[in-house]
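Q: How would the structure tokens look for this protein?
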Amino acid sequence: MDATNSVSKGVFVFKNGATRAKGPRKVQHCNSFLDASTTNQLWFRMYKKHWQRTREMILKLQTSSYDKIINDLLKFIENSRTSNKYEGFLPTAALLTGINQTDHLSQFEKLADDIHNNTHSIVVLLQARDGTNLKQAIETIVEKCIESQRKDSCNEKRFRKNQLNLDVLQAWYLETQVNGETRPNLTIIVPDFELFNPVILQDLIIILDSYAAKLPFVLVFGVATDVSTIHNVLPYHVTSKIKISVFQSESSAGNLNKILNEVLLTPFSPLHLSGKVFKLLLDIFLFYDFSVNGFIEGFKYAFMDHYFQKSINALSAIINDEDELKTMINDLSPSELGQIRQLPSFRPYVESQQNPQDVVDLLTNDDHLKRSLAPMIMQVHNYWFTFYCAMHMLQTLVGDLPKAPLGKQMRELYCLCVASDVTLLPEFKECVQLLSFLSKDEMLQKVKQVLDVLLLWVNRNDQLSIKGCLVYDVAPLEEMANGLVLLSDELGAANHERILGEKQSDKPSCLLEPHMGRQELREKLLTAAKHSKSESAVSRAIGKIIDYCVKNIFQRYLRPATSQTVPLVELFLYNNSTYLRQHIVGTPRAAVHIALNNPQYYTQCDCCRLDESSCIVPSLPDLSIAYKLHLECGRMINLFDWLQAFRIIIDDNKNDETEQQVDPIIQARFTRVVAELQFLGFIKTSKTKTDHVTRLTW
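A: Here is the predicted structure in token form.
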């Protein structure tokens, strides 16, 4: 073997005759790194159980939302080539998925399986990475078409890679699909249309069209942006050969709203996020990536961290019956009961007790505390039940008001309600004023929608009762419904006749008096105008409905969960936004700086330990030494001076003569770290001075 002198300009591969093993590799299942002592703890069992339940609910919701669009797409593919005659164009479906869906590629893999199982088609999934050039794209199409039909016939002759072309595909198709009436379509799915090379895609469509008379091709484009992207990428002479049918899937924001409304922002979720934490996850979604999967993973991290912090947080679990709750409480250790007594919300609860003996027993008697925990936890569950119900009622009333002062979506309203008393906000007062301007029919329609919301929550509770699960207290909901029904009946019977104000007839006689000043007259006119206003029975009935909703529903049940109002609320509410931000919002520049300036922070080795952060010792990695030296330089860095400083630090001979010949090994190490720093973006080459590099960070 010839030696290779260059270290920096290339990588040389020497084949030793080893051949790649044939057949698929066996997938090795990764076992959990948690030991049995951890997995058997209460907090982990409750976390695993409820996260699996939450994940199944989310997947079920996402699957149902995709069913309609998939069914329409299957009908299109099935009916695209009703006859074997070529109609002059390629049937093409443009599936608009929206940016950063839960998993873009897995959606199309599932779509390919559905097309294969539910239609008479041969399906090919052609990704952009499989079509870097036209030859590779055609070989991928031909190979996957033939391989998909070869599963049942193992003895069939295999083609070499250089034999795969459309002529071979046409001959194979006409030979194997002899029944002309039931010949399958050749469905080609391009999941990442925007990533595909436009020139290759144009040539591919033209070539496929030339074979379309005998090969029934059907194209499916996965478009993440807009249908206009197809017309921007493909010129007219290409689009004239395809007939596009557009299928619009649900957007990322719509998908997230559905998950929040049906799964996460409900009392049936064991974990509730504080305003800051929820706003953090929402801001990352709206202003960073529009990734539903990223939002779910962030919620999962908060879910896991909440249960891991304290084992007593497992008491917030959604239990099946009171016996299960009592079993969990009886298993609590004295130290865990001590943690419950140290909660900030436990003291107001103790102070609210009227009997002094109950106060002493709660603080000293563990058995008495265990007996008291069950009703306290059920009180918190009922609080969240009425809280979310009242929030949905408020959203129904104010969601479609002009300019939407409290927001159009449930997620916006939740941020306000969970952080502060929403009834004290100026936006809420503006909504109340806008509601008072509604007509009789509009208000009756609003009340009907609110009653439908109440009925929905009562039905949910009844379903839990049928399943044998723990049910919530629906007495407040029934009270709300009865009050709204009486007021809506009063509004329905009211008319628009004016009701005169009291003492209106004798007001004008005493307005003007002799020797009255201008300011005095103005005040009397304002007072008279205020008292002389007349209102109709309809406006009075609408005012009663609004007052009832504000005072008897929103001010009572939309109180934010604080330690002063709700006992043991810390078990249900996750509010550590700072910790969550540190772990899900990356700071790559700070992490890289720490790793290069102080490698011992990550390596935890004694050889890299530094007395001061500015010290440079020979035992540091080469990249760290070069980085710390470049921090001492200005905007322009002389490569020769940089090399000499690097050599002096790592050279064992400690020879400071700058004219000495540099060891080739040291020079190679320096060349490598310079290339790595350039790759990391700390320096760049200079066009004016070839022996200098420019520093990019400060």
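Residues 42-79 form the longest helix (38 residues).

The longest strand covers residues 90-96.

Upvote if useful.
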